[in-house]
Amino acid sequence: MTQPTDIRRVALALAAADVPVLPLRAGKVPFGNCRACKGNACGGRPNMKNAGPCECPSVCHAWAAATTDLRVLTSPAWTSAWREAAAVAYHPGGAGLTVVDLDDAAAIAWAREALPATRAVSTTRGEHWIYRGAMQSANAVRPGIDIKSSMSYARWLGPGTGTMTTLPDAVRALVVKKPPTARPARPVVTVPAPAGGGECRHRSPVYLDRGIAMAEQRITAAQSAVHTTVYRTFLSVLSAHGRCGCLTDAHVEQLFAAAHAKGESVRHCTDAWANAQTALGM
After folding, report:
1. What's the predicted TM-score (pTM) here?
2. Bridge partners of 25?
3. Which DSSP state fits 203?
4. pLDDT digits over 182-217, tens only?
5. What is the pLDDT of residue 63?
6. What is the pLDDT of residue 2?
């Protein structure tokens, strides 16, 4: 079993090589935001490499927590996190890299036929192919294949074998053909004419904002059964606001961000959203 000291040693070595790192909890998920940063109240950490305007000393904001700053990595809050960590992750985009995550033998076989060889790292079920160059991340670009680069993290599983090559157009094309999205495209629905000729009450900013805030709080407060909580929350939001055209991409991104902070992947969020739409006949 990997010891916390070993995990921290690996992280510091990667940071010294200009690779932004962060600790992962059991289950390969990042540490959740602290109380002050929940709901992105602090403004977040949008910088692609190191912590941005948020000055929180905790290990917050998932992939955006990744840093090469040794002062941060050795601070008391981070030292405590390393003791609890189960693995080291890194931000490929921040290091100028792209990881093609091949999840099974079929995906590997496809990559060997379609993509140029590069450095490969063995994973539990497949391989990470690492290219030099950053791009937009996207999940499920093909069956069993995710792209991890900007605004994403990958688990560090060792240096791998082979010579790293330049990110090819063939990998970029995977995202161009199927643009990355945090959720399935919202179906076009007809806004029903409200009774009495008045405006739809859902379009009241106060009503809608309160509903989204309550949904975020419900997800954030979940201590167990996070998958179920996220699904039921999405179902509730869609039931109240999904048929009248009130929801915007920004509202849905807020909900996805809350779920991601609890360890849910974009794929899980997308599936939960799609399943909720199906359950409501949308």
Report:
1. 0.62
2. 29
3. G
4. 444 444 433 333 344 444 555 566 777 778 888 888
5. 86
6. 55
Structure-token match 């409200």, residue found? 194
29 φψ region: left (φ > 0), alpha (ψ -120 to 50), beta (else): beta
Sign of CA dihedral 257, 77, 224, 219: negative
Rounded Cα distance between 259 and 218, Å, is 10
Structure tokens at 248: 């915007």
Rg (CA), the chain: 20
Cα–Cα distance for residue pair 89/66, rounded to 1 Å = 8
27 to 8, 24, 30, 187, 210: CA distances (angstroms): 18, 8, 9, 33, 32
Q: How confident is the model at residue 229 (pLDDT cuts 50, 70, 90)?
A: confident
At 67-81, the pLDDT tens digits run 999 999 999 999 999
> 141 and 105 in contact (C-beta within 8 Å)?
no
Q: What is the pLDDT of residues 114-124, one digit of tens each?
A: 999 999 999 99
Q: Determine the straight-line distance between the first and last CA of the chain, rounded to whole angstroms.
A: 47
Lowest mean pLDDT among 32-46, 70-84, 155-169: 32-46
In angstroms, the CA 49 to CA 153 distance is 12
Contact criterion met (CB below 8 Å) for 152 and 93: yes
Give the residue from 29, 32, 84 showing the smallest Cα distance to 58: 32
Q: Which of 227, 65, 32 is nearest to 152 (CA)?
A: 65
| Alpha-carbon separation of residue 148 from 36, 153, 215, 216 (angstroms) | 28, 7, 28, 26
Cβ partners under 8 Å of residue 126, min gap 6:
101, 102, 103, 104, 105, 107, 108, 144
In this structure, are residues 127 and 99 in contact, taking their beta carbons and an 8 Å threshold? no
